[in-house]
Amino acid sequence: MVINVKNLVKRYGDLVALDHLSFQVKEGEIFGLLGPNGSGKTTAINCILSLLEYERGDIEIFGKPMTPDAYDIKRQIGIVMQNVAVYTELTVYENIDYFCGLYVPDKALRKKLVQEAIEFTGLNDFSRFYPKKLSGGLLRRLNIACGIAHKPKLIFMDEPTVAIDPQSRNRILDGIMELNRQGATVVYTSHYMEEVEQICSRIMILDKGKAIALGTKEQLKDMITLGEKITVEAFSITDEQIQSLKSIPNVLSVHYSGNLLVIQSGKGRNNLEAVLDFIKKEGIQFGKIYSELPTLNDVFLEITGKELRD
Amino acid sequence: MFAHIFKYRMKCLLKDKETMFWTLLFPLALGIFFNLAFSGIGKGETFQTIPVAVVDNEEYRNDTVFQTILQEVSSGEDPLFHLHVVSEQVASKMLEDNQISGYFVAGSPVTMVVKTTGMRQSIIRSFLDTYIQNMSLVSTVMQKNPKALKALTDDLFHTVSYLKEVSATDAKPDNVASYYYVLIAMACFYGGFQGSRDISDIQANNTDTAARLNLTPVSKMKTFLVYMSASLLIHYIKMLLLLSFLVFVIKVNFGGKVGFILLTTLLGSIAGLSFGAFVSALLKKSEGIKIAVIVGTSMLMSFLAGMMYQGMKYIIQRNVPVLSYLNPLNLLTDAYYSLYYYDTYTRYAVNMGCLALFIPVFCIGTYLIVRRRKYASL
Ligand SMILES: Nc1ncnc2c1ncn2[C@@H]1O[C@H](COP(=O)(O)OP(=O)(O)O)[C@@H](O)[C@H]1O
Ligand SMILES: [Mg+2]
User: Fold this and answer.
1) Which residue of A has its CA nearest to B12?
2) In a designed cystine with B272, which of A30, A40, A57, B191 is the match (CB 3.0 to 4.6 A)?
3) Using CB atoms and an 8 Å cut-off, which of residues 46-75 of chain A contact chain B?
């Protein structure tokens, strides 16, 4: 077990930011912490890293209790924090070298590691730039390079893709999977469910400091009653037709507004064929048709009664 | 590890424009401003005879040269001094009651006692300096040629009339130097910016880079000590630059005790850095608030030490003497001052001693706040 968190409770004054959080992270996985803004992801990471005080709870990393001066543990950890943390007075290269040097005293080895980190994050053309001259996406990449240059065994990434362009985002996500392939265990937080679905092997969903679900994405989707959702761009649907659609077995609800017909089925049986047959039989004119399986948003919605997205 | 952190810290600090402004450019600009302002000081004032005393002791009675010269400059039309020859007790009482501006004690060398600083005290000082400088020369000449006394008094009169002119016209009298002493003391305390930045850069609840540092396998205290060393080196160099500018360009007279002046500046730099670190550790607020507090406190301390109005220093010395010891910036100013005005080191040592006491207070205070290892919130 790489990380073992037991009954973690953290308050900010009256606000309970983490409410008896318990989970484990296994070696070699990409563990996702998914939750809306303010759900406690950053707080959880900072408590695990012994940066924040907490009211109660036990935290072990690599089987040993984590404390502020557990330098043996810290040496094997890499952190990419939510906020970009680099020195404006140092260049890209110098920033990476400075932080890497706090882990790796050997100069020759460090030179190689810094170069690798620069290549890994695609900052080759910018190594002499000062942070002020970098775009948001490049800054995020520098932030990542500073956190991972020393080749840590365990990497924490707190919303590394927030507020950047899709191209940089994909590059970062690919990078994380690559680090994981090279052997690193990753704890990844995000409020974008697509990202978490895309890269995480296991996911914990947080809401208001509580863990509301934990498992692989299949397991999470299995927890809820919803199944396939079919959306049809249809012109003129009568109330009788809606009633007939509702009577198809396993259909939970049918909504029609603004030329969009949405048919939500329950878990298990899929109804795309039945719906298509019905449309043909009734001679309904239609445009696009598409079918979606439940998302983590649906999981979140069903458990908490609200949307994951703000 | 030390070298690695030190190297990058130096790079950061040397490129930190805001700190560079406050700790170097701002004091330089103030120095230039003072220089412009003082070149007009004293205009239109007429010279007044200065009441002084000389202690009537064995040495004085035997020192005919000094007797003669004092009498010379205290007589005639528009004399330099109005001289009282009294016992040491009476002289001291008169000084206390402000009946005289200072008194001389004969001996080898002749010394002087003043209570405050100011134009008159500067003149007394210059008189004595000139006297002592010429003394050895004169006493040898005197034995061979008694008429040489005339030459000495002429020389003194020369100086005296020059001094009178200086005080009455537009040149720089030496007491203006006091303003520059406060200025460099203030600049030393502006080192507080660097001390403050060092704290912000290691306290995880202050900056993001500090949070990152707290997660590395290097202890926060160790990093902090390296940061402070780099800051001290840079700040001390800046203060030496400022000192050179004042001495060589503006021609402020700091006296000749170079070693002590460098030591005073070093102690001042350390005091300034630790002061800033302490304020910064105490406040935990945004960088803007910390800077405002450091500038504000330094300005207030400078004001009380006589930066805007020299009289302030004496008002405080007279009415709330304890405040002049509780104001580290005043102690530093007075250390420079006593190096220039006094031959003995007692007053200098008291100032330096008191100033040195502030440093452990600031440092221990900072340590107690900074040593906590986890943060309640970020
Ligand atoms: N320093 C702080 N002081 C008080 N409340 C805080 C502080 N930091 C975070 N919080 C609160 O704690 C909760 C969790 O915040 P955070 O861990 O930052 O969430 P997330 O990272 O999931 O967006 C939020 O309600 C937030 O307002
Ligand atoms: Mg967060």
Assistant:
1) A89
2) B191
3) 46, 49-53, 67-69, 71-72, 74-75
Pocket of ligand 1, beta carbon within 6 A: A 12, 15, 17, 35, 37-43; B 377-378
The pLDDT, as a whole number, for residue B33 is 75
Chain A residues lying within 8 Å of B216, measured CB to CB: 74, 99, 102-103
Q: Is residue A300 situated within a structural domain? A: no
Chain A residues within an 8 Å CB radius of B198: none
B351-355 long-range contacts, CB within 8 A, separation 24+: B352/B263, B352/B264, B352/B267, B354/B325, B354/B328, B355/B267, B355/B268, B355/B271, B355/B328, B355/B331
Q: What's the CATH number where A131 sits?
A: 3.40.50.300
Return d(Cα B213, Cα B202) in angstroms, integer: 7
DSSP A129-193: --GGGS-HHHHHHHHHHHHHTT--SEEEEESTTTT--HHHHHHHHHHHHHHHHTT-EEEEEES-H
The 10s digit of each residue's pLDDT in B169-212 is: 333 344 678 888 999 999 999 999 999 999 999 999 999 999 99
How far lies A217's CA from each of A39, A195, A299, B377, in Å? Answer: 19, 12, 10, 32
Q: Which ligand is nearest to the CA of A12?
A: 1
* Final residue belonging to a domain, choices A171, A191, A221: A221
Query: How many CA atoms lie within 13 Å of A212's alpha carbon, on the beta-carbon side?
Result: 24
Question: Helix, strand, or coil here: B261?
Answer: helix
* Cβ within 8 Å, pair A71-B217: yes
Q: pLDDT by residue (tens digit) across B87-120? A: 999 999 999 998 998 999 988 788 888 887 777 7
For the CA atoms of A153, A158, A160, A161, the dihedral, rounded to the nearest 10 degrees, stands at 130
Domains of chain B and any CATH numbers: 2-40+179-371 (no CATH), 47-157 (3.40.190)
- Say yes or no: B215 contacts chain A, CB-CB below 8 A: yes
Q: Take residue A230 and report the two structure tokens written for it.
A: 């079919």
Give the separation between CA A173 and CA A156, rounded to whole angstroms: 14
